[in-house]
Amino acid sequence: MTDDRYLKRTIVKETAVSSFLPEGSRDLRIYLPPGYNEVLSYPAVYCQDGEDFFNFGRIATIANKLILDGELEPFVIIGVDVNKKLRTSEYSPDGGRHEAYVRFFGEELVPFLESRYPIRRERSERLLAGDSLGGTVSLHLALRYPDLFSNILSLSGAFYEASQAIVAAADNLAGLNLYMHVGLQETAYETDHGTFDFVTLNRQMKELLEARGASLHYTEKDGKHQWGSWQKELPDGLAYFLD
Question: By its UniProt entry, which Gene3D superfamilies does this protein fall under (predicted)?
Answer without folding.
Answer: alpha/beta hydrolase
